[in-house]
Each structure stands twice: as structure tokens, then as C-alpha cells.
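FAQ: What does the model actually see?

It sees only this:
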Amino acid sequence: MPEKAIREFSSGAVVLRKLHGAWHVAVIEPRMRYGDANAPKKKVIALPKGNIDKGETPAETALREVHEETGVKATLVDKLADVKYFYRRSWSDNARVFKIVSFFLFRYVSGRCGNITEEMKIEVAHAFWTPLAEAPGQLSYRGERDVVKKAIEYVKTHRAMLEAHKH
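And it is asked to produce this:
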């Protein structure tokens, strides 16, 4: 009988900000767990994301994670996609996990990217803005690259709305 997978639900965000006339996205470099056999050997660039807490909606989780992991505040624009994948928790119980991450599009409101609390520096090594057009080539995970490509298409088709979308 095949091993039954545990289900996990997370939310993440594509936070857009116009800088020097071009759209940029907030990304993070997660701090890798020591002893994790699945940890990539090279630097990882990812979108902010995290597990949904009890009582939170997926969009609320994404907003919280954006602030915790990047230091910026943002406002919800739309849902982009769900990314689904399996992984193995090699750092603890070696359980097989089926994970669904709901990604949302946000517009930057305030704050300085990378201005995170000392507690978050355990999880996040670095947070920064990168040009949206370059993000698919920089992100480490295929699902997140696909989500950013959806964000690029969204910007093309909803430019006027995004330009007007202020806090």
C-alpha cells in the first residue's frame, strides 16, 4: 500500500512595486535549515510564503507573510494561482507531504524591503526588489516561476487598474 501523504496549505505573494518606471517584485533568500538533506546546494530565491494559521484566510496569510518576510505592507489585488507539489520533510519526520500554495497578487503600500525583525532573520537571509521581467529567470522553484509569469501577464492586461491601485 502506498504511503499516505500529509496535506499542508500555505499562501504566498507576488508583491509589485513600480520603481524607476518598471515593475519590481519582492523576493526573499530563505536561510537554509542545517541538516536538511533536501536543502539546495546553491542560493535559493523565492517568493514570500508560509503556512496558513488557524482562523486565517489564505489571502490574510499571504499578507502576513509578506510583512514578516520582506518588511513591506501591501494591498490585495487578485488571486493568481494554486501551486501543488509533493515533498519529503527530511529535517524532521521524513513524512511525505502534499502541499498546496495559493499565490496572490499584491500592490506595495509602504515599508522598506529587507527591514525584517530579528526573529525572522532566522528564516530569511535577505529580502529585496527584483525587476518583474527578470524574476522568472531568478526564482529557484518552477511553480513560483510560473506564478510570476502569470503576474507578468496580469500586468499586461490590467495595467491601468494596477497603475491606479493605490492604498
